[in-house]
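Entry 14. Structure prediction run on the chain below.
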Amino acid sequence: MSITRKEFFRQGFISLGRTALDIAGSLQGGEAVEAAVIPDTAPSGEPRPDLTATAFNERCLARNCGCFACVERCLSQAIMVAAGEGIRIDETRCSGCGTCEYVCPVNPKAVILQPRIKPVEIPAMNADIIPAKGERTC
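Output returned:
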């Protein structure tokens, strides 16, 4: 069986993360700690306008040690590092491709894709507009 170096380290990090979650769950009185779903295949890289990346900086390695995996792989340049905080994601630039979630080395993931919250546009009604003095209405 042949395994790449990248896959070897990926499996090691996954195993380490699951063990840490098991220990955390037992220390918290047996409460179950949910692990993030780890994608098995690489994302296609195609934009998904219905999704956007969300950062969980309490898990992010960029906050302390200098992990820039997601920043380097983001083609739309929507991710930037905030010193001492972690990462910030510009939702207007995020294409929703999922590359950042795939390359994130921690488990549970510090960057996950979530449905994009679309603002509701309320069209202006002509009846609601009060004409200024001297203006004609339609």
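The chain has a mean pLDDT of 78.
Filed with the rest of this week's runs.
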